[in-house]
Amino acid sequence: MTFDMAQFHQVFFEESFEGLDIMETGLLNMDPGAVDAEEINAIFRAAHSIKGGSGTFGFMNVSEFTHVMETLLDEMRDGRRQATEHGINVLLQSVDVLRDMLIAARDGGTPDEDRVRAQRAELDHVLADRDGDAPGATAAAPVEVAGSTSAGDVSPIAWKIVFRPHQHLMRTGNDPLRIIRELASLGELTAECDADGLPEFEEYEPEDSYLSWNLRLHDAIDKALIDDVFEWVEDDCDFAIVPVMPEGYDPAAQTAGSDVTDSVPSTPAATAPGLSLVPAPADRRESAERRQPDERRKVAPGGAGASSSIRVDIQKIDTLINMVGELVITQSMLGMLGEEFDMSRVDRLREGLVQLERHTRELQESVMRIRMVPISFSFSRFPRLVHDLSQKLGKKIELKMSGENTEVDKTVIEKIGDPLVHLVRNSLDHGIEKPEERVAAGKPETGTVYLGASHRGGNIVIEIRDDGRGLPRDKILAKAVERGLVKPEEHPSDKEIYDLIFQPGFSTAEQVSDVSGRGVGMDVVRRNINELGGAIEIESTPGRGSAIIVRLPLTLAILDGQTIRIGDETYIVPLVSIIESIQIDKSMLNKVAGRGETFRLRDEYLPIVRMHEVFGIEGHDARDLTDGILVVVEGEGRKCGLFVDDLLGQQQVVIKSLEANYRKVEGISGATILGDGSVALIIDIPGLMRLAKQQGGRAMHAMASVG
Amino acid sequence: MAASILAVDDSASMRQMVSFTLKGAGYDVVEASDGVQALNIAKTRSVNLVITDVNMPNMDGISLIRELRALSSYKFTPLLMLTTESSPEKKQEGKAAGATGWIVKPFNPEQLLNTVKKVLS
């Protein structure tokens, strides 16, 4: 029978990655020296399962690697080895290597062999770093009887076997008959039953075994095969396996040291009659084949890893099914109404449509909820990160987290990971001070980084807060002046100064470390967050710490939009980007030489983007700025006014990717289908600003210096 | 009637593999994910063979074998454990608890079926 083991691979990988997370979390919680039994058991079990599974499913390199980790964990578990900080760290690194190996196995690639080898050496080193009693007993040697090894060049032509079960043998679930049957499957077998062991009838226990057998296998088979038959019952019986040599061979050379008291004749003497089992030579090849070392299974071709799956709470599915039920009822009600409709029933129709709308909306919400996963998927990597980095940086840092169960769209989770890592690293590297510096400043030696998530309105808010030294306001300002971002005579507010760190290539770190601070970070972070339709903000108090607040939409599939009209075209502006919409008064307009059209909004001068010019739309009706409407929007920290013909309304729109169906278009983030079936494009505000600037639009020179 | 087998493993992929293989060969398979669950099943219905992993949460395979062997209805039932080559002590521990034998991990479906045939025929 052949099996396609690949069908179990997906479950195996899912469960292995879960196992790795358990190991990682467990190792991070482990206190060097004081090992919690339950904790290390869980880690050990996870490693053990990965080892067993990877061996079974043919990922031998994973299995071998995990074996070494398991050995180390086993010793820590038994208390044979101290769980030192070094040991734990090596295990943590090994978890990483193992994860890479599993990813490679899943995607059909090859892991970084050098890294695996180096880590393996590291593990071996920890294992060897031990005085006495390290590795467990080597395989318990079975009671070796009369040497098949010492037979020199002459091979035995047959085997004599004495098999004497102990009384309790059957109570281990074994059966003497089974053993005889298995021997018979190896070759031609004759058997003689010895009933001498039977007790007096009064002492006879029906559940015990009393019989013994003298057996003879008439074939020159490998002794290991016979040993195998007795493997399970080694300790539950006496047995001897004695080779029968061809004539002319001196049997005296054989030693018959065995725990069997009977002397077994070792010449091919007559076999006694008795119970004779039918040999089954046909089975022989099969059982011999069974012993062939398992062939290494080829790595499954890629593709298994390509389909990503999502685990959904069963309750969510139930809700969904309920909703669909409601929807079906509404549909059949409307269907019946349609069959015999007259104007007298128009009220019922309207009622039905209201119901339909409600059910559709509810259904939409629950479908969206299926894609929602707790943000702990993203947060879970931080304990490790903080642990590793604080060691590397020589700082004492405690990580506090809250709101890990806050649910976010899966796509958001996938994309927010890297920016969050960057932000947390910044806090650790630049925010939190060295212990001595903290003590000198009258703060506790251990710094705290707080990572929290919560729902606020239609957004999820992620906060990264530390009690470090805060952002170096003056240094940032000096740097900005040096780079010409701020004019020396300007006096920007604190908030404006802090926002400068989002400028490309802006870093004030005196020393570039390999942790962060190469100046390629914050602008990218902000761009990533903007791409998710989110926003980022900084708060900082010198000497007290800083906080980064990231606001993200709950989902990327649906957007709250403002529909606008430009000529005959309809566009959608994301509601989050809109600050306000105003009608322009002539007095607000300003034309600065070389800086194009601007308008004054309270104490700010903002550039104006004439939408119809940027998108090349003809036939717009608002020629004069005072005729139309200015939608004041903000993107990537800059503001501007979009000059449009009219505001149409606000609605939720389902985002359709333009890139997937057409190609990327600058200034447009996607498209949607409106209620009347027409298509409207969704405006990407930062992209639009870049586009307007490229086109050398009237006011766009102003963009660089304003805002 | 097909022989019924209780497959106990905390790893879903191993459980699936064992169960799929045995069902494919016509056996009736019940699954449990730890010793406690397995013991409950074994007490409420009769099973002809138990195949259990050793390392499991709540109740491990060795304890499960000990508990089962102590039940009169499982006195002679074959109880096999799935174990790794690296742990001869575990085999001894298992034997002492009353295990019939073991299947060494890693194993493939054919090996599993051969062993099961051996003890159930």
Strand tally of chain A: 22
Distance between the termini of chain A: 72 Å
Q: Might you state the CATH topology name of the largest domain in chain A?
A: Heat Shock Protein 90
CATH architecture designation of the largest domain in chain A = 2-Layer Sandwich
Give the overall form of chain A. Answer: elongated
Based on the structure, what is the oligomeric state of the protein chains? heterodimer
Distance between the termini of chain B: 13 Å
Main beta-sheet annotation of chain B: 5 strands, parallel
Number of domains of chain A: 5
* Helical coverage of chain A, percent range: 25-40%
Q: How many β-strand stretches of chain B?
A: 5
Question: So how many helices of chain B?
Answer: 5
Query: What is the global morphology of chain B?
Result: globular
Helix content of chain B: 40-55%
Strand content of chain A: 15-25%
Q: Biggest sheet of chain A: strands, sense, closure? A: 6 strands, mixed
Strand content of the residues of chain B, in percent? 15-25%
What is the topology, as strand order, of the major beta sheet of chain B?
Answer: 2-1-3-4-5
Low-confidence stretches of chain B: none
Report on this structure.
The complex is a heterodimer of chains A (707) and B (121). Chain A has 707 residues and is α+β, with helices and mostly antiparallel strands. Chain A has 21 helices and 22 strands. Chain A is elongated, with a radius of gyration of 39 Å. The relative contact order of chain A is 0.05. Chain B is α/β, with parallel strands linked by helices and 121 residues long. Helices cover 45% and strands 21% of the residues of chain B. Chain B is built from five helices and five strands; from the N terminus they run E-H-E-H-E-H-E-H-E-H. In chain B, helix 2 runs parallel beside helix 3 (61-70). At the A-B interface, helix 1, helix 2, helix 3 and helix 6 of A face helix 1, strand 4, helix 4, strand 5 and helix 5 of B.
